[in-house]
Amino acid sequence: MLSHEEVQAALSARLDGESTGLDDAVVDAHLQQCEQCRAYWDRLLSLSRNLGLAEVGGGMAPPPDLSEVILAGVEGQWRRFAQRRALALALARVGLVFMACVWAAWAIRFIVTADPATETAVRLGVASALAFAAWKPGQIPGILLIVGTMFTFTLGFAVRDILVDSANGVLGPLLILLFSFVALVATWAIDKGADVRRAWRLLSADPA
Distance of CA 153 to CAs 148, 150, 178, 183, Å? Predict the structure, then answer.
């Protein structure tokens, strides 16, 4: 007379594709009559299906390439994330190109009004840098340093002029610099999103 433990051990071996040590017909006959062992077998089958196991040679075994099962589960989510990131990066690059055009138009205005050539060269340089950043986002940190410095100095002069009530014509250049700075930061953050999040987690980690 077979015990429940012997039958259940044989069922586990069958699931693993190993020799059960018992006649399959005897095990199957016991399953038909024993509700406890039949419930045990059903739980084994359910667990195997949840783990993505495949039937091989009358038993159950992991699929040849488990990575395919894992990737199949995350592929849709990853594709949606990649599409959103690509769209956001494209919009950020368009913003950089737009700001490059603004700086170029600003430089042309200086040429028309016969203002100092140095001012014109600076604005053309920034326009070229923004256009280059749109093409190569990896170069943004160096450009960001220059634009950020210009914005900081301009903001300081703007505050000074406001205090002495002579802030005529300051708001326009300040806004152009601000929007350029924001466009650079946004493009860089989207392009290096995973690295930025990883660095932030490291900086905000609790040492305790």
Answer: 9, 5, 12, 19
- The pTM of this model reads 0.57
* Residue 56, strand partner residues: 59
pLDDT digits (tens, 9 = 90+) for 132-188: 999 998 899 999 999 999 999 888 887 887 777 665 667 788 899 999 999 999 999
Structure tokens at 155: 């903001």
> Contact at 8 Å (CB) between 153 and 115?
no
SS3 208: coil
Backbone angles phi, psi at 56, to 5 degrees: -135, 115
- pLDDT, one tens digit per residue, over 37-59 is 788 878 877 776 665 544 444 55
- The C-alpha atoms of residue 197 and residue 124 are separated, in whole angstroms, by 34
Name the DSSP letter for residue 54: E
For 37, residues 6+ apart whose C-beta sits below 8 A from its C-beta are: 4, 7, 8, 11, 30, 31
49 exposure class (CB count in 10 Å sphere: 0-12, 13-18, 19+): exposed
CA dihedral 185, 190, 195, 199 (to 10 degrees): 50
Cα separation, 165 vs 135, whole angstroms: 41
Give the chain's largest Cα–Cα span: 108
